[in-house]
Structure of HD-GYP domain-containing protein:
Amino acid sequence: MRSIIDSIYKKDDIENIDVMKTPRRIASIYVLIGCLWILFSDRILSMIVIDKNIYSNIQTYKGWFFVFFTAILLYRLILNDCLKIKKLSTDLRRKNIESNNNLIVIEEKNEELQRVINVTNDFFMLTTKILENRYVNDEVFLSETLKIAYNLVKESNVGSAYIVENGKIRFIDAIGFDMESLGKIQITPEEFEYKYNDIKIKNYPELSFKRKIGNHTYEDYSKKNVELKQSIYVGISNEDNLYGGFSLDISKECNVEFSDESIRNLKAFQQLVNGFYKVKKVNDQRNLEQSDIVHAFISALEFHDEYTKGHSEAVALYSLEIGKYLKFDGNQLNDLYWAATIHDIGKIIIPQSILNKSDKLTKEEYEHVKQHTQIGYDILSKADSLRDVSKYVLLHHERWDGTGYPVGLKGEEIPLISQIIAVADSWHAMTSDRPYKRGITKDEGIEELKNNKGSQFAPHIVDVFLEILLKETD
């Protein structure tokens, strides 16, 4: 490393010497000529000129000769160096221009890279929701897909998205178009005239930049007509079954066309979207099946215990409020809602005489009631779509101090969702009327939560719920 530094310093020294070389050379020449003139000019003149009068005249103008002679010599030397400097300056200016052009290219590439990164990130977030089994509305999915594709294809400056319903196409979102007018258009998928598993590029005649939708132009539907130069239609489909799609367009005033790169990117993007849309439909069906199963269970329990209907829904809503306050994501809120909704499903096997008994339960009856958490778990864990939430149902009667049932978990050993359901469940049970008892007041219920905070209930969940109740009062 030291030798490298030394070599750099030596190189710098050489460059500094080169910088001083020209003025030193000119000064040296001037001194040399001056000394030679002073020392030898008289001798040379005396040897050449014999006539004293001529010699005397030459002596008078000798200094002028020296000035003109050295001026011409120095002029030539300086001119030569100036030409070199000018050439170097021109080369340097050319290099600067090239460097600036390279910087512009690099900045454009960086902007392009950042745009691709943003598009990738947006698509990743959308697909993550789907893969996490979170419900994403079809319109939201297609609208987000339009925005991602719009950012992916830099040439486009307008676009629209549509969904297929009952054999008709309905526009759901637009960029640059009049959405109100597009919303009135209803045509069949066949009128789009392109294959569902491919994309179609439409070039508009030079004298007619009208966007054709079916047998009509966009002008027929809106006074806010957008005249187009080129369009790309992209379908979201499963083989020959069209679900929806989007178009990207270039308005006529833009001096660009869709590049081959953009078309290739869109084709790849279409394949990705088609694949993830199939996953989405499977997840939507799974969520629908889960909802149907839960409501079937609740309906069966309502026949057995009429109180359950209002209680289950109230506990689910209270639980959701707590989950939102804790900033649960969509997947967590989904699990929390269904677990809270169905937390008492195990009571379906508890005799009505015990569930509605007005007197204090016997030890045997209480042990029988306690079995409802385990029975609920056994029922729910058999269903694939409810297996994940079954553990929260099993543990919603665990206590913070470890004296709960059926396992006897303590503190943070209890799943957070079960901690939330425990508070919401107890609150509604305390403050609502039952056939055999009258509910306590809101203030009395708050005191009960405070008194049992840290023993029966998780302290931080009680604190959150009390803040929610306080906001409701305000």
User: Anything to note?
Assistant: Residues 305-473 form a domain with the Hypothetical protein af1432 fold (CATH 1.10.3210.10). The CA atoms of residues 203 and 230 lie 5 Å apart.
